[in-house]
Backbone:
């Protein structure tokens, strides 16, 4: 801008000097005309730039919309039109620390409004911060630019692009039936022993471990990982690692959740927030989006397993199934804190999951 | 992994261009044509104003579309810009051209080269060349800026200034081509004000536009300049220069050489010059000098300068401290025996102040002997003195010996010049004078044939010799042929000679008319002569007014110099001028074309051969034809696009047909402002399950349904698929068409050829 102004000034000064040298009033008039033209443009630009109000809205995605729709409203309260303007925006993914810059052009009539719309699309889900670095008005000649607004911020979440794995309810029910049948035959409900404890009134004699009873001198019974009810708990434990697999973990988690929701299977999501375990009942799409929002907004440093954190406050035995989804190979088994019979743990990396047939793996995981 | 992890996709800019933009632009072009065609001064300002209006159309469009309340603000802005535009235009007309001319002239003087590169008869080829180069440069520069950098506001600015300059230089010379050129620029400008070219032109197309436009322009200009007659160009340039000079120097009291429409003699007492001198006698103050007579004007001498090897006389005068301006009476100083006292010659000082006179010239008295001439660098071609544009020399002081008007002729006939002693003792001078004499003989003896015929018929057996006798004969003839009238006679018809009209038809006039015919008559009798305009200072007067403006004749006396001769009756003592033995055949009245003397009847242009001025309906018809051509071009284009499109979607390769159709469907969807999903299978051949998003109209849902049911196979699309896609294409065009507004439909149909 300074260069352009200097150029115009130099031309005007040169012409003025020529006018003085030659004594030709007409050239002076030409100088006047040039200055008048530029002066008018500049004055109008200042007038417009000082009275421009900027606001921003960002619409998050939903089950159909896989992008963020951002709308910047520019209201010009001055009578002078903003002939041309530029808005510099930055979109930053807070989860993955990617950012992208863009400049948008606009023009606003005097006492009028204008709207800038754009979409933020990415393969990477996460919480996005949209920052309008500055809004500048440029005069009609394209020479000077005046700042009208700066540093406006808005946040919105871009949800993972989920994969539809179709109907899972039938398969899930079949699995239950199979397990019940097995339990009926063997007298066990499920195969794995959760723990051993002292005999309490009402315990079945079938569960007494006679060998231990003999050793210990008191009645010891086996406690099996019997599900109290049919609830499912999905625990995402996604830590900042390789962005691709981190993103894949989000996608996996979200796809499973979406497929349960679409098949009307009630479930809960457990996650760690500020070092405390939180378990949320998911009954509708809104619940899921809200929970996803919280998960994306929270941060995990990966020092402690989410499973560990949740187990501190939550009785995990009552769930028929616990899906533990992580992208950290070290945490594949819930940090080895528990070995639950109902735990289905999966680590999303190229070795163990999704390498060959992602959709099939996903379906297996869900059922 | 994607190179770009986040994509920011801007909403598609909808082009706001409508058919009305083009209509508006065409209207502007029409108005411009009026501005160029009509010569009235004020229309230039009006045209500039209109042009300015277009330049700010960006602003106006923004203002007027939505905010009716601020039209006033828009109006004020427009007025300011228009005024600025008008001033700029006028400024260029006033200052730019003349300054350029001055630069060129000074270059010519230094280099003794071509005179007046732009603005003379000889300069026509240069005018064309300059015009051509100018237009070419402006076109290329502007479009380079626009297309390659998309900085349209700067481009508009640049364009407007180039057009201002162009208008000043060329519009007056090339009306028709100027209109066409203007039209092209207006169209481009309109395109610029609405959308970036990037939005509707691809890179290759931009380059094609640039190259193609440049070539077309070159062709148009070359063709145009070949078609325009030289006379038209010359006349237009002269009119332009005259207009510019008028603005720069003020208005001349007489003609400044232009005899096409001589005004009545001024009788007002408006101040012109202030002369302070002890000389109480009446004397001439010489301004304009006309050397060449073209039949409608007096111009400076064509041909070469009195320069180079011929410079001897001028050099001698300068070296000996004499005025190089008049080369007058120098020999008198050489002659010891010359009786100066008998001619009441005294050395006086003169201080002449310009107080409202036409400031193109310095007004100086005839003088001789040790003249203090302060402006040797202002000696124009053949020793004339011009006051150039930028030199505001309002006061001119000379110290010299001037002679009373009536004594000049007598002086020039003084026998002292024949004294052999003078020749012997001043050989250098006479050698130098000899070269100048040859130059004068060559340059100041031309008479048009028509005028010579009249003189031949008049002076049938005249045998007149000697300057005194010839002067008397000229005076006698003029007094007999023309009557003195301060009211100017009717101007001559186009193509007719000024003198012929005067002598055969009008037979009246004032000093301009007498001096013109007188000059030609002196030449007829073999004395080199030229036409002079200036002021005649009445005896004892200090203030010279408009009514003192006067024209007279200068004749060249060999060995002596240029001598002013008075030929207007009433300004000289007629009693002493009777020439005995001279027979003058009176040329009797010739009324219009019924000449009593048959040999002169041919001098009047025949009615039938007269060039008729352009009829008033011609321009509207041309514009109408242009409109018609544009409409035809639009229709033809539509047909061509449809033909190409059909060829694209009905080719032998079904797969390609389908792909092309899908591209068209996508284009239709974009035009109708529909949002498309990313995975719309533009290039994928495997499936077409992607559909338009977020469309609620049921008909459109059906389209999507269709799209979903089309399957491709690896072998290629089946005939059924093609027909479904085709139906889908038609339906998408329908939707696109239905969703558009009335104007947009027109545009879609004729400019984008949607269906």
Residues:
């Amino acid at each position: 801008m300074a260069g352009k102004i200097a150029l115009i000034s130099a031309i005007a000064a040169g012409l003025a000097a020529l006018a003085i040298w030659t004594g030709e009033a007409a050239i002076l008039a030409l100088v006047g005309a040039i200055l008048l033209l530029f002066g008018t443009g500049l004055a109008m630009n200042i007038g417009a730039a000082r009275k421009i109000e900027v606001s921003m809205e960002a619409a998050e995605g939903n089950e159909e919309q896989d992008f963020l729709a951002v709308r910047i409203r520019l209201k010009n309260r001055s009578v002078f039109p903003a002939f041309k303007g530029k808005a510099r925006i930055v979109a930053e993914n807070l989860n993955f620390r990617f950012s992208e810059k863009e400049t948008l052009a606009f023009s606003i009539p005097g006492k009028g409004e204008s709207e800038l719309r754009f979409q933020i699309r990415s393969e990477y889900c996460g919480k996005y911060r949209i920052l309008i670095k500055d809004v500048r008005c440029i005069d009609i000649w394209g020479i000077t630019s005046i700042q009208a607004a700066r540093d406006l911020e808005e946040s919105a979440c871009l949800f993972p692009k989920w994969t539809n794995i179709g109907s899972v309810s039938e398969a899930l029910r079949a699995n239950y039936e199979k397990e019940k049948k097995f339990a009926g035959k063997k007298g066990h409900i499920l195969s794995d022993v959760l723990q051993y404890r002292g005999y309490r009134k009402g315990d079945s004699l079938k569960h007494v471990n006679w060998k231990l009873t003999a050793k210990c001198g008191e009645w010891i019974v086996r406690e099996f990982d019997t599900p109290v009810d049919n609830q499912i708990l999905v625990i995402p434990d996604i830590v900042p690692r390789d962005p691709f697999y981190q993103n894949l973990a989000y996608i996996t988690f979200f796809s499973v959740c979406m497929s349960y929701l679409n098949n009307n299977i009630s479930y809960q999501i457990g996650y760690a927030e500020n070092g405390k375990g939180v378990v949320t009942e998911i009954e509708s799409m809104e619940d899921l989006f809200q929970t996803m929002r919280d998960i994306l907004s929270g941060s995990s440093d990966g020092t402690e397993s989410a499973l560990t954190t949740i187990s501190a406050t939550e009785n995990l035995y009552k769930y028929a199934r616990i899906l533990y989804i992580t992208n950290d190979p070290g945490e594949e088994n819930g940090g080895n804190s528990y070995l639950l019979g109902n735990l289905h743990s999966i680590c999303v990396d190229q070795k163990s999951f999704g390498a060959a047939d992602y959709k099939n793996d996903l379906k297996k995981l869900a059922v | 992994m994607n190179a770009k992890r986040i994509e920011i996709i801007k909403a598609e800019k909808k082009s706001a261009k409508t058919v009305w933009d083009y209509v508006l632009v065409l209207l502007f072009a029409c108005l411009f044509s009026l501005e160029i065609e009509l010569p009235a001064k004020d229309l230039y300002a009006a045209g500039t104003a209109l042009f300015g209006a277009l330049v700010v159309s960006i602003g106006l469009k923004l203002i007027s579309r939505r905010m009716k309340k601020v039209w006033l603000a828009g109006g004020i802005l427009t007025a300011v810009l228009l005024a600025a535009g008008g001033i700029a235009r006028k400024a260029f007309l006033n200052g730019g051209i003349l300054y350029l001319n001055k630069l060129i002239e000074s270059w010519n003087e230094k280099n003794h080269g071509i005179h007046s590169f732009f603005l003379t008869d000889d300069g026509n080829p240069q005018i064309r060349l300059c015009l051509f180069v100018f237009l070419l440069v402006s076109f290329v520069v502007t479009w380079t800026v626009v297309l390659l950098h998309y900085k349209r506001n700067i481009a508009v600015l640049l364009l407007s200034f180039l057009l201002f300059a162009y208008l000043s230089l060329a519009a007056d010379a090339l009306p028709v081509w100027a209109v066409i050129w203007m039209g092209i620029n207006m169209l481009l400008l309109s395109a610029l004000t609405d959308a970036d070219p990037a939005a509707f032109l691809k890179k290759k197309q931009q380059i094609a536009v640039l190259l193609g436009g440049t070539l077309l322009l070159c062709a148009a200009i070359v063709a145009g300049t070949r078609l325009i007659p030289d006379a038209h160009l010359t006349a237009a340039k002269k009119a332009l220069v005259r207009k510019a000079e008028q603005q720069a120097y003020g208005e001349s009291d007489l003609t400044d050489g232009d005899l096409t429409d001589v005004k009545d003699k001024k009788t007002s007492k408006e101040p012109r010059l202030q002369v302070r001198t002890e000389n109480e006698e009446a004397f001439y103050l010489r301004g304009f000098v006309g050397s060449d007579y073209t039949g409608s004007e007096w111009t400076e001498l064509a041909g070469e300068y009195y320069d180079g090897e011929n410079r001897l006389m001028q050099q001698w005068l300068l070296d000996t401290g004499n005025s190089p301006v008049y080369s007058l009476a120098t020999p008198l100083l050489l002659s010891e025996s010359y009786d100066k006292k008998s001619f009441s010659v005294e050395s006086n000082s003169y201080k002449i102040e310009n107080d409202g006179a036409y400031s193109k010239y310095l007004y100086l008295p005839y003088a001789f002997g040790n003249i203090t001439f302060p402006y040797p660098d202002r000696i124009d071609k053949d020793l004339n003195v011009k006051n150039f544009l930028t030199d505001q020399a309002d006061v001119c002081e000379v110290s010299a010996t001037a002679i009373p008007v009536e004594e000049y002729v007598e002086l020039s006939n003084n026998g002292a010049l024949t004294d052999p002693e003078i020749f012997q003792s001043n050989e250098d001078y006479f050698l130098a004078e000899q070269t100048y004499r040859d130059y004068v003989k060559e340059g100041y003896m031309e008479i048009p044939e028509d005028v010579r015929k009249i003189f031949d018929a008049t002076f049938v057996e005249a045998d007149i010799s000697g300057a005194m006798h010839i002067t008397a004969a000229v005076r006698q003839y003029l007094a007999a042929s023309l009557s003195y009238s301060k009211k100017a006679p009717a101007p001559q018809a186009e193509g007719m000679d000024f003198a012929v009209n005067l002598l055969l038809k009008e037979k009246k006039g004032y000093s301009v008319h007498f001096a013109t015919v007188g000059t030609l008559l002196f030449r007829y009798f073999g004395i080199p002569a030229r036409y002079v305009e200036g002021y005649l200072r009445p005896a004892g007067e200090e203030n010279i007014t408009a009514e003192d403006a006067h024209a007279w004749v200068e004749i060249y006396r060999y060995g002596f110099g240029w001598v002013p001769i008075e030929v207007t009756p009433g300004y000289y003592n007629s009693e002493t001028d009777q020439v005995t033995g001279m027979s003058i055949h009176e040329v009797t009245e010739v009324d219009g074309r019924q000449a009593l003397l048959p040999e002169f009847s041919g001098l009047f242009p025949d009615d039938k051969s007269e060039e008729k001025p352009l009829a008033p309906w011609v321009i509207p018809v041309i514009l109408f034809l242009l409109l018609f051509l544009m409409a035809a071009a639009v229709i033809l284009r539509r047909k061509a696009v449809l033909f190409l499109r059909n060829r694209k979607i009905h080719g032998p390769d079904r797969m390609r047909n389908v792909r092309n159709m899908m591209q068209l469907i996508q284009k239709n969807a974009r035009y109708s402002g529909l949002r498309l999903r990313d995975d719309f299978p533009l290039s994928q051949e495997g499936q077409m399950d992607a559909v338009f998003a977020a469309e609620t109209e049921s008909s459109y849902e059906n389209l999507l349904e269709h799209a979903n049911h089309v399957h491709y196979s690896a072998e290629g699309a089946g005939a059924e698929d093609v027909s479904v896609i085709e139906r889908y294409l038609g339906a998408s065009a329908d939707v696109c068409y239905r969703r558009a507004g009335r104007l947009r439909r027109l545009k879609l149909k004729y400019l984008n050829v949607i269906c």
